[in-house]
Amino acid sequence: MRLISAAVHFRPARFGAVDSLRAMVADVVNLVGCELEPGGALSLVMDYSDLLLRHPAAADEAGMAIASHLLDLAAIGLGARSDVAAAARRRGLRAVRLKCVLLILEARFHEPDFSAQKLASAAGLSERYVNELLFEAGAGFTTRLTELRLRKAADLLGLRKDRISDIAFACGFNDLSYFNRCFRRRFGLTPTAARGK
After folding, report:
1. First CA to last CA across the chain, in angstroms?
2. Residues 73-120 pLDDT 10s
3. Angle at 162 between CA 157 and CA 167, to 5 degrees
4. Could you give the CA distance from residue 7 to residue 82 in angstroms, rounded to a whole number?
5. pTM (2 decimals)?
6. How many other C-beta atoms are found inside a 10 Å radius of the C-beta of residue 92?
7. Do residues 145 and 114 touch, judged by C-beta distance below 8 A?
8. Tens digits of per-residue pLDDT, 148-184?
């Protein structure tokens, strides 16, 4: 059992969360200080909050969306009405899980042996579900991983005078020829030419 009361202590002036939570969960005020069963949406709220504490830049980039996701999850965990819970589940759980997966991917893309399986394991989800989330959001694991690596390499080529191979390896590529092909395909010029611009 975990004592949860923070969900109903949002500042009212900020995002209108208290009013929103009251509209979503009957008698939410009576839940303050009550012990709630661990697991499910409330555990996901706590995990998501911990992840945000480790990666504060994510809150700057998507603060309102994150607040909405956390509110949906809190409402589900506190016993939202069935119609509200159904809508929140559709919006919240998948969106939060996707955000979590993307944060992990952005934090670990530079690891040469990073894989969809490692991403799924780090997120606590199945590999199939992670791939499903990524495809629904527009691109699969390999496409996203390669894009993150290439963007970082392009940034580093403009900032550092390191050898191109060192930059490629620092960004997670372990084959210089493959890096050069991907870079040329993505940016329309070689890494050497990109460094000169």
Report:
1. 58
2. 766 666 666 666 666 666 667 777 888 899 999 999 999 999 999 999
3. 60
4. 19
5. 0.58
6. 24
7. yes
8. 999 999 999 988 788 999 999 999 999 999 999 999 9
